[in-house]
Amino acid sequence: MKYIIVGIGNFGGYLAKRLTNLGHEVIGVDSNEGRIEMIKDSITHSIVMDATDQAAVKNLPLKETDVVIIAIGEDIGASIMSTAIFKQLKSKRIIARAINDLHETVIQAIGVDEIIHPEEETADRLSKRLEMKGVLDSLEISDEYNIVEVKVPGRYVEMTVAEADIRKEFYLNILTIIKIEQKKNLLGINTPYKNVIGVVTPEYAFEAEDILLLFGKVKNIQDFLKFGD
């Protein structure tokens, strides 16, 4: 996959190197020439550029890029402006770093696909989650076991939990099911939030937008994701 990472500080720089080591193509962008100089030999491409300059951003290969990650951690204004520019230029998927609650509210309003909090999610964890295509979120229990959020594959829609029998076929346990609903944020704008339905019964019929919270071995999770493609 191809990533653009904007903001090559401690978090963004480590994430860029980690994703490169995992075999992905990474373009690192920062207005600080010193940061780019330090990382240029460790990632695929590095560019000294002001990501709040729309004309400059237009020159990036956005159509070929799978994910743009706004990892700016010091300048909230630059983070908001660059996020808005990448959104306006129709980037396929935008993941943005939130510094505080107000910043999070603003970038939610812009319409990013995902918000991360580096104080809660390490670069290692994020890189592993991005590596497992189809995983919305993950929690590493051990080297062998993970808990993941994944959208229900289309083939299971309208089937009951008993009929799908994911536990028997993939040795995965469905811990619960999450539904994405809407509520108004501080600006009065509808934003998504997770509604957890609790204990899943065998009679429950999967719906198209359901998110499954699964527990199991990493290999079995990967097999399940491949099966759902």
TrEMBL record:
Pfam family membership, one: TrkA_N
Residue stretches spanning the membrane: none
Annotated ranges, domain RCK N-terminal: 1-116
Cross-referenced Gene3D superfamilies: NAD(P)-binding Rossmann-like Domain (3.40.50.720), Regulator of K+ conductance, C-terminal domain (3.30.70.1450)
SUPFAM superfamilies reported for this sequence: NAD(P)-binding Rossmann-fold domains (SSF51735), TrkA C-terminal domain-like (SSF116726)
InterPro entries xref list: NAD(P)-bd_dom_sf (IPR036291), RCK_C_sf (IPR036721), RCK_N (IPR003148), Trk_Ktr_HKT_K-transport (IPR050721)
BP GO annotations: potassium ion transport
Classification lineage: Bacteria, Pseudomonadati, Bacteroidota, Cytophagia, Cytophagales
Protein name: Trk system potassium uptake protein TrkA
Species: Algoriphagus yeomjeoni
